[in-house]
Each structure stands twice: as C-alpha cells, then as structure tokens.
User: Fold this.
Amino acid sequence: NAGVTQTPKFQVLKTGQSMTLQCAQDMNHNSMYWYRQDPGMGLRLIYYSASEGTTDKGEVPNGYNVSRLNKREFSLRLESAAPSQTSVYFCASRGAGTEAFFGQGTRLTVV
Amino acid sequence: RKEVEQDPGPFNVPEGATVAFNCTYSNSASQSFFWYRQDCRKEPKLLMSVYSSGNEDGRFTAQLNRASQYISLLIRDSKLSDSATYLCVALRIAAGNKLTFGGGTRVLVKP
Assistant:
C-alpha cells in the first residue's frame, strides 16, 4: 500500500534553477493538493486539482506551476527557484467522502 | 484575513489534565471540517472528522459551531504522546474540494 508517493525526499537547488516535484497516488482519488510548510507555520495551499484536467490556485501560487498529468499524478514545478521557496512541500490526495492522505514531504533548500 | 485561524500556542498541559482549543473559519460555505495531527514536521495524519452534532473518539471530543464559525478540540486525560501540533482543516466542495489548513496549535504535555 504505497498511498501517496513524493519524489525526491530532499533537494538542494541554486537560485534560478528549475525543478519538478513529483507526486503520485494509487488510491484512485480525484482530488490532489500541493502545500508548503515553513518553520513554525501550518500548511499553505499552493495549487490543487479536483479532477484530471483541472487545477486551481491556492493561497500562495506565485512562482509555481502544476500539471495534473493523469488521475494518479500531480507535479509541481519551480521555474526559477528563489531562497524564499525553501520549505517542506507536501502532496496530498483525497477521494469523495474520505480523509486526505499525505506524502512524506520533500525538503527543499534553495541557496 | 486567513480562511482558517488557530491559536499557535504552545499549550503546556500537565499529564492527565484536560486541554481544549478552538479554530475559527471565515468562509461560511465551508462544509466539512477535520482535525489533523502533525509530529515534528512529518506528514499530517487525520485525528478525527468533525460532525455537526459533535463527536467523540476515545479521549478526544470535537465540536462544530456553525453560527459562530468555529470548531473545537478537547483532549481529556492528556498523555505525553499527545504532544504534537494539531491542525484544523476546512473543506469547500463548491470551490473544487479546496482543503484549507489553519496554522496549527502546538500542545506540549509534561510529566
């Protein structure tokens, strides 16, 4: 039972570099989410997707793009990383009437 | 104004005591609510859903007050293992299943 799988688990980027965070779920959930969590703070919603082919902006979308590739996968892209994007990134998925399940997180440092 | 707000704490609780804290939400269209638990910035995990009539799960009791737009969590007979951050979550189905987290309330149970 893999649940929600995020890759990579850790990443160090230089300012200006780009990268894509991958997320995949095997629970046949329609909804998927990307959050970031900074020290001492809760989870802030970056983007979310209610179903394949749809995406919506959350609270802090600037500097990010997403792709809902299919029902299983929801990727988050940083086109030009900035130190302010240093954070822990969590992906989650949710089915109708169920709780949200989270991946183990990606710890990203931008230097 | 944030959509979901919590007192960050910490709530320092003697072992065996009762602690309660609230979470307020600003959007009356929020339909469902949850309490999640997070340990040391690991992935959040569902503690309990919150039902309109209030619900109990062992030592944990959750209440929803739609008129005043807040939910509460009460922990009885606190254990050392209850030390964690408790995250309040609001779901808006009409907004594409948007899941919004509060900033979290930190609880420290001490011997």
Summary: The mean pLDDT of chain A is 95.
